[in-house]
Amino acid sequence: MFEKIIQKFKENNISVIPVENNEEACRKVLEIIPKKSSIGYGGSITLESIGLFDRIKSGDYEFYDKSKAVYGSEEYFKLVDLSQHVDYFLSSSNAITRDGKIVNMDRTGNRVSSIIFGPKHVIIVVGKNKIVDDVDSAIERIRNIAAPLNAKRLKLNTPCVKTGRCMDCSSPDSICCSTVIIHKQFKPNRITIILVNKDLGY
Ligand code: SF4
Prior knowledge:
- With 202 residues, the chain is of the alpha/beta class.
- The chain has a domain at 3-100 and 108-132 and 182-196: Rossmann fold (3-Layer(aba) Sandwich).
- Helix content is 36%, strand content 21%.
């Protein structure tokens, strides 16, 4: 089912592992990560909803768990800093394209910067609802689906929280500060995408 997109990502040095459901997604991630590894993550409804964090917390890992810290606090940013040099960085993505690109838009930027460089390995878990045709469709998806819902979840004061669509704001609370497109990886298979055959996150 995902043969074409898997091939496109392969050409860009990014591996894609297709799985059918949440349990299989968690199992694949935990098969990849050796015990005792250091693990960080970018905030993700997808990773929470499949139960991956609970499995990691109960496992034998060095897990930099930001959920214990107040968002924006000194402790929070210390964990963010540590997460930029881990063995495995976990994330979802706002969109992946059929021609093999990963597209994300961030507020603080820790997620996108860690995907680009720093962690030795990056594992991205993404539902099939995040597949779009191209980068333009990815930006459209982010601004009119993902960003308004994430701004609402984070209780930010942006116009899209009220309208459900991007109003191209310059709000201090804007969630759209950095747009990053991963076109290709210089190090083959540093990034692995676990592509789940169901809708996950937003
Ligand atoms: S630019 Fe502003 S209005 Fe548009 S999606 Fe981002 S936060 Fe919302």
